[in-house]
Amino acid sequence: MSTRSAATKILRGSLSTTPAPGAAGSPGSFHLPLRKLVIEYCESNPSSAGTRQFLRSTVPAWARSHPSVEVVVRQRPSLHPVLRGFYANGRSKEICVKNLEGNGVEATLKKLRDDSGAKTKSLKRIPVESKAESARGIWSALHGAR
Fold first, then answer.
1. pTM for the full model?
2. Which of 96, 92, 120 is nearest to 108 (CA)?
3. Which of 63, 70, 75 is nearest to 87 (CA)?
4. Which of 48, 88, 90, 145 could make a disulfide contact with 81, Cβ separation 3.0–4.6 Å?
5. For 60-109, what is each residue's pLDDT tens digit?
6. Which InterPro entries match (predicted)?
7. Hey, where are the domains in the chain?
8. What topology is assigned to 31-114 in CATH?
9. How far lies 43's CA from each of 55, 66, 68, 77, 137, in Å?
10. Residue 146 and residue 143: Cα distance in Å, rounded?
11. Which of 54, 20, 23, 17 is nearest to 37 (CA)?
């Protein structure tokens, strides 16, 4: 194993982080649920062009303005670019940003930043709960009119 590949290889266990002991609980401070952001791209793949432009122009300023988020930039040769967000609740989200321009990658990054990390819940078919009884009573085939 060469020293170059050892330096760029990120172990799976190192992708999950935990907040610092006094940082998250200190009064008067707000920390984003996003703990770690991993940006993976290819240096030569045309689908990563917008991501490369975004890395050169926006990422350094974004990282300085969000000190509570660890930013990792990693190359993935011959693969499409991906943004991965690791959250304080232990969940992670991964979004492919292939063929997006720099502003599209930035919009995806904002989506990851503003997300809570909770599992997406469907708002359809939520059972209706009422404190009052039904005006018609409970229907049953066994208690029909005689």
1. 0.67
2. 96
3. 70
4. 48
5. 999 999 998 999 999 999 999 999 999 999 999 999 999 999 999 999 99
6. Ribosomal_mL43 (IPR039927), Ribosomal_mL43/mS25/NADH_DH (IPR007741), Thioredoxin-like_sf (IPR036249)
7. 31-114
8. Glutaredoxin (3.40.30)
9. 11, 25, 28, 7, 67
10. 9
11. 17
